Amino acid sequence: MHPPTDFSNNTTDDLQESARSFSQPLIALSAGTLVGILGGLIGLGGAEFRLPLLVSWFGLPILLSILVNLLISLVTVTFSLLFRLPIQGGLLWLTHWRVVVNLLLGSLLGSALGARMASNTTTRRLKGIIAALLVLLGALLISHEWLFAQQPLRLNPLLRSISGIVAGLLIGIVSSLLGVAGGELLIPTLTLLFAVEIKLAGSLSLLVSLPTISMGLWRYSRHAIFAQLRSQTRLVIWMALGSILGAYLGSRWLPYVSSTLLQIFLGCILFLSAYRIWRSHPS
């Protein structure tokens, strides 16, 4: 005789699996919306806040978290460009193509180098590097008002071009190590180094970020973990949708929030996130 089938256990497992299938998209959408709102309130993408969530809330390995974050950043940057194009117009962007190319000369190389660094280092060391970069971004966020109050640097054209390439190189490395668009670094660079008006700098930073992120993803595609992205397709889609929605809501609420106090608060959140990632168990 065959042993009796335990239908109760099967039913319980099916219910738990159904609950997980229903809850993960909802959690991913909520997390993406929260990140998008935070980014929209300070005029940035918010990917630096998304990375700690991918590690802590969703329990992804650190390298896979970077890849997922990079892919979501690619989606949000693409939509941000589409949203901004009718407002500012492509002709205005074309007048600054030399600045974009100058930064891209460094950022594309930096993005490839950053992906190589992340792929070839240990998990413990990678977490330490990411924690240090989050602290740096937190400090920059807190000092944004002071940075934007400074006068643009007076440099001769050759020195400005060299400085732009070096700055782009460093920004590209940070982008691939954190999976971010790099607006936190690009916008101050554009305003202080190239004297670009801050709203226009936000758009030009997206033009630099899009190919920089693409380069990082292409470089990561040579790593075995890239194949695991397929298993995170739903997470990427729902978090990207939430990020787009949140960015819209954050931009609408921007006039009603004190940006200075918010930047200090969010900078402290990045400090805490850096500590949590550094102290987290290897994965």
Write the layout of secondary structure elements.
Layout: H1 7-41, H2 47-56, H3 62-88, H4 90-94, H5 97-120, H6 123-142, H7 144-148, H8 157-178, H9 183-193, H10 198-220, H11 233-253, H12 259-279
Describe this structure in words.
The termini are far apart. This protein has helices at 7-41, 47-56, 62-88, 90-94, 97-120, 123-142, 144-148, 157-178, 183-193, 198-220, 233-253, 259-279. The protein has one domain (33-279). Helix 1 (7-41) runs antiparallel to helix 2 (47-56), helix 2 (47-56) packs antiparallel against helix 3 (62-88) and helix 3 packs across helix 11. It is 79% helix and 0% strand. 43% of the residues are buried. With 283 residues, the protein is mainly alpha-helical.
Q: What's the quick description here?
A:
79% of the residues lie in helices and 0% in strands. It contains twelve helices and no strands.
Average pLDDT, rounded to a whole number, is: 85
Outline type: globular
- The residue fraction in helices comes out at over 70%
Domain unit count: 1
Biggest sheet: strands, sense, closure? none
| Low-confidence spans | 10-19
How do the SSEs run, as a string of H and E? HHHHHHHHHHHH
Structural class: mainly alpha
> What is the number of strand segments?
0
- The number of helices is 12
CA-based gyration radius: 20 Å
| Gap from first CA to last CA | 46 Å
Strand content: under 5%
